[in-house]
Amino acid sequence: MKSKRKKKDSRPNWDEYFLEIAKIVSKRSTCLRRKVGALIVNDRRILATGYNGTPSAIKHCAQRGCLREKLNIPSGERHELCNGLHAEQNVLLQAALYGISLRGSALYVTNQPCIICAKMLINAGIREVVIAGGYPDKMAREFLDEAGIKIRRAK
């Protein structure tokens, strides 16, 4: 007699699914120090993706070298001294380029956003940030908390 017990669903849950896609997006990164991928989701639909790297039509860091390495700048500091954009910035810009509203959406990203990205996410109307890994920027977490944006590390 067969058991009536349901088989465990082997599919990834939504957080796992979207963060796995963010990890794949990060593989397009042109950054020499840290590869980051991001995507914005609303109602379980992907609206835009982004990865960190130099702006379009600008030489990649692999071609010109890493300015931050040359200047010995630690991770999490002096974000303006970089040839690239962060994945969060690129995902916001991609949505803007194609006229996609992000109000009430969730950001899935391989690392916690920095303070600059956190401020942009707040003003873009992002309601939740789901991260796979950390980043040394306490102020960013404080801003997201104060703005009422839920930030959580996926399990």
List keywords for this structure.
155 residues, alpha/beta, five-stranded mixed β-sheet, 5 strands, 33% helix
Briefly say what this structure is.
With 155 residues, the chain is α/β, with parallel strands linked by helices. 33% of the residues lie in helices and 19% in strands.
Any chance you could write out the topology, listing elements then pairs?
Elements: H1 14-26, E1 37-42, E2 45-51, H2 61-64, H3 67-70, H4 87-97, E3 106-111, H5 115-124, E4 128-133, H6 138-146, E5 150-153
Parallel strand pairs: 3-4, 4-5
Antiparallel strand pairs: 1-2, 1-3
Describe the structure.
The protein is α/β, with parallel strands linked by helices and 155 residues long. The chain has helices at 14-26, 61-64, 67-70, 87-97, 115-124, 138-146, and strands at residues 37-42, 45-51, 106-111, 128-133, 150-153. β4 (128-133), α6 (138-146) and β5 form a beta-alpha-beta unit. α5 packs parallel to α6 (138-146). The longest helix has 13 residues, at 14-26. It is globular. The protein starts with 13 loop residues before the first helix and ends with a strand.
